[in-house]
Amino acid sequence: MEFLILHNKNNEKRQEYMTTAPVGPLIVSLALPAVASIMTTAFYNAADAYFVSQIGTSASGAVGIVFAMMAILQAIGFTLGMGAGSVISRALGAGDVQKASRYASTSFFSAMTLGAAVCLFGHISIDSLMRLLGSTPTILPYAKSYAVWILYGAPVICGAFTMNIILRSEGHAAFGMRGLVCGGFLNVALDPIFIFKFGLGISGAAMATLISQCVSFSILLSFFLRRKSDVEINIRKVSLHPKTFFDIVSLGFASFTRQGLASASAAALNIAASAYGDAAVAAMSIVGRVFFLIQAVVIGTGHGFTPVAGYAYGAGDFRRVRSAFWFTVKGEALLMALLAAASYALAPDIIALFRRGDADVIAIGTRAMRFQSLSLLLAPILVTSGMIHQSLGFAWRATLLSCTRNGICFIPLIIVLPRFIGLTGVEVTQTAADFLSFIITVPFLYFFMKMLRAKEKGAKIK
């Protein structure tokens, strides 16, 4: 009983802090660990690509193939985590801890179950899956050796992503950062040992990733088991009510479409690039890992912003929601301008870090990186607009916006452009998709902000 009283007092303090602290410093304090978490994931993906690329061009291409599969696991974790997180932050903002715990528990155990299903299906049909994701005959052996170990960790990967987002949604982004950063550094340390010292090749890189993910999962779970979180994860709190699952899936569906289409887009990109040889697949894989690292800044900042918006919206402070959004976008735009300039200028040197001496990979990768750097300034609006719709419960709009960049725009373009302009079409597709997505997103954002201003004035919005 004493614990419950203390826990409730801590929740009340957290609620007051999240709804009254100055917006700028609050978002920064939440965004920094979130950025660190996502950049760590992006960094050890890039580290995997770097160490594996030393084995050969086909092995380097295999990382891009398996990345498309890992996007499926991320889609599960993000869908259930963001869906539950949207409810959790608003429930905590309204002081309903029991509801928040119910959604947290349901999403976590659902993620573990779905991860186990992916593990089973993936091992049964691994050859077909790798070909479906764009593997060429020469890349296939490497892709299988890498994917088989990642599949063993599918439940852990899905569960870790879900827990990390739950922690962020309640304002404990620093807890999530600790878990992912520890796993990330361990991955980078184990890669060269397993790949080269133990002579395990690409399988060693996958083993290092699996061990690191298990460590991250254990650290994240410990925060809930030691009651450091504001919500509780307990199998007895899992809801069997259909509405709970519907809420989680409908609100998280934007993340599912975003990550699921990221997987589909990666596969389509691999297939389009494979027509120009393993060098093209390897180059696009390297560019993808580098830009995933760059865009982790925007995604991480957005994850720092969403709990602030959720708490404020739950508390009825709509002006605070708008202030938080524009503070986030302006900060992200400044960072993206700097990173865009750096990636454009240093493109050949960055690609050469992965495949020094491979002229074809460097040439293709340089052109693709420079094209993509041109659209980095659009990322703050594209990413943060989708996140604010999702975090505040506007499920269908968030889903539609999440479909644009990697679905509605990218997939048709990756099919059409290479037919007219060849390899250049492969290199420029992401940039073209970003510009089209921006055109679609702006009207949605305009009307959303108009709605928030009307709510501030107490107007009745139909």
Structure description:
With 462 residues, the protein is an all-alpha fold. The chain has 18 helices and no strands. The chain has one domain (22-456). Helix 11 packs antiparallel against helix 12 and helix 11 (278-314) crosses helix 15 (379-391). It is globular and about 60 Å long.
Structural class: mainly alpha
Low-confidence stretches: 1-7
Helix count, DSSP H or I runs of 4 or more residues: 18
* Coarse morphology: globular
Strand content: under 5%
Q: Give the C-alpha Rg.
A: 21 Å
Give the averaged pLDDT, no decimals: 88
Indicate how many domains the architecture comprises.
1
Reading the helices and strands in chain order gives HHHHHHHHHHHHHHHHHH
Percent range of helical residues: over 70%
Largest beta-sheet characterization:
none
Strand tally: 0
- Determine the N-to-C terminus distance: 44 Å
Question: Which key terms come to mind for this protein?
Answer:
disordered N terminus, single chain, 462 residues, mainly alpha
Secondary structure topology:
Elements: H1 2-20, H2 23-53, H3 57-93, H4 97-124, H5 126-132, H6 140-152, H7 154-169, H8 173-197, H9 201-225, H10 242-274, H11 278-314, H12 318-345, H13 347-354, H14 359-373, H15 379-391, H16 395-408, H17 410-421, H18 423-456
